[in-house]
Specification:
Strand order of the largest sheet: 5-4-1-6-10-7-11
Strand content: 15-25%
Number of helices: 7
Low-confidence stretches: none
Oligomer: single chain
Length: 242
Amino acid sequence: MSKSADQTVKAIVLAAGHGTRMGTEIPKQYLMLGGYEVLYYSLKAFEESPVDEIVLVTGADEVSWCREQIVEKYGFSKVRKIIAGGKERCDSVYRGLLAAAPCGYVLIHDGARPLISREIIRDVLKGTTEFGNCTTGMPVKDTIKIADRDDMAADTPDRKSLWAIHTPQGFAYPLILEAHEKFREGDFQIPVTDDTMLVEIFLRQKTKLVKGSYENIKVTTPEDMELARIFLKKRGSFAERG
């Protein structure tokens, strides 16, 4: 029996970024990690999860390449759409949301986080269906300082209340679509670094936090690639090829 639209769960995997901190000409999500592209690991985790469909958001010039060299090559049957992203991350997410319609719930994930696991996806999905919006993350281990404009430490918040936020982040589809549309209605000059902040700011709703893993890092620098290799080897997911 097929699911109704309000029961369907879709994942939006973001791979449209061209980060400069990696110091390579190839976008970080396509760098080889253990014989596979960084993006491969995220798609594989969602392919093997309860998610019904995947929308892959990539660069405009990379849509065909992703279809042929990643989706078709590895047989990711749940990737039903591959679309071009926008100028900023929030633009790419919005395009992904439009492409995901209709559905009941949506999980949004950065393709540059290859250490995502099926367990984290399961826990975020559970929190999403129960609370309407949910994100994975971990309590911070370091003391955090708030700096002023002169790079002087101005305040030290209580570490017990601080979390480092990761992805995936899950939402009831109408909720996150409304938050993005409200943001786009005005001329808001705020950096949108994740999607839960839009729900908090524009809909005044709290986000459920669920613990994921300190290993669920975002690959941004060469040092991150080395860490990712270590974590993948520990999992037994690392098989150097070629």
